Amino acid sequence: MGLEDSCVHCGFCLESCPTYVVTRSEIHSPRGRIASVKLGISSVGIETCMFCRRCEAACPSGVEYGRLIHLRREEQPLRKAMNLLMERPKLAYRLLKASSGLNSSLIKRIRDFIPSVDSPLDYREDNPNVLLFPGCLMALSFRKTVENALRFIKSKGYKVEIVNGCCGLSHYSEGEKKRSEELIGNLKEKFKGRRVVSLSSNCSAHMREMGLQVEDFSEFALAHVNGRVNMTVTIHDPCHANLIGLTKVTRDVMRKVGIKVVEMDEPSFECGAGGGYFLYHPEISDEVMKIKAEKVKKSGVNLVLSTNPACSLALAFKGLKPVHLADILGESA
Ligand code: SF4
Ligand code: SF4
């Protein structure tokens, strides 16, 4: 029996799916995608899935949709090249800097979406007792957040080493079976017996689902934070982090420090970035980003707590003000 066979075609997942919401097309719905797998036919829907896995949370039959898409998707050269580049954030930084004179539509889209990049931060104290894992996109596009996280962890008396690299979530979502396994295997070796704090919450979720013992920054913060912060935010829930309950921890931290939270409608509705999806399906991505921005605006609060870099970039792309937990706690640490 295949993973697709537990789908009973009830449609409970449809309204949770961002690509269905913006297209109203069965082809671009979880049910339609699963039907194509059952029938053994190729469908463009398999490629237009954002891999947010919101359908999994909505499904009463427990369809393991993420695994199904991972197994079904075939590797594609452009995506493979982009993923390979993100495995090396320092090289990605140099290439992005060098590409400033180029005008291909792909480069333009990357520059519009990631307006500034920094060289990933290197840091190592003697005998470190915490490894800080920023995640590839965080290291490249939010160096200040990495610095704030580092300051916060050090202020609690820990010695830190930063480990720059990639967890392989994009590889996994895009069907790169062998490479995603290799990346997780490498991290398992590197992290063995160490305390690891992960700064990008969707990476934290992926690594945990793949059997790695990592602590999300929100969990580290909850155990160590004290004092009060006078601030009002609305919260965006990154999709994978939400699936394993990390977004509840974020709210616990907010309560502990007294930050006022004004909830938006459907906080876990996809941000529209979808990892590298914004590059490969810009029209659908833009429509999803538009809906997300409307939900934020309706909350009446401009400052959006977002613990995952791709989501933060999507929110900023729509003119909103994303802020990471590490920025709130680390700046004053
Ligand atoms: S994936 Fe789950 S919720 Fe969606 S149609 Fe199939 S059984 Fe229903
Ligand atoms: S993973 Fe997201 S985009 Fe893909 S079918 Fe499920 S809800 Fe839709």
UniProtKB/TrEMBL annotation:
SUPFAM superfamilies cross-referenced by the UniProt entry: alpha-helical ferredoxin (SSF46548)
Superkingdom assignment: Archaea
Protein name as it appears in the record: 4Fe-4S ferredoxin-type domain-containing protein
Pfam family, one: CCG
Annotated source species: Metallosphaera cuprina (strain Ar-4)
Record-linked InterPro entries: 4Fe4S_Fe-S-bd, 4Fe4S_Fe_S_CS, Cys_rich_dom, Helical_ferredxn
Keyword terms, alphabetized: 4Fe-4S, Iron, Iron-sulfur, Metal-binding, Repeat
Sequence ranges assigned to domain 4Fe-4S ferredoxin-type in this UniProt record: 1-27, 40-63
GO MF annotations in UniProt: 4 iron, 4 sulfur cluster binding; metal ion binding; oxidoreductase activity
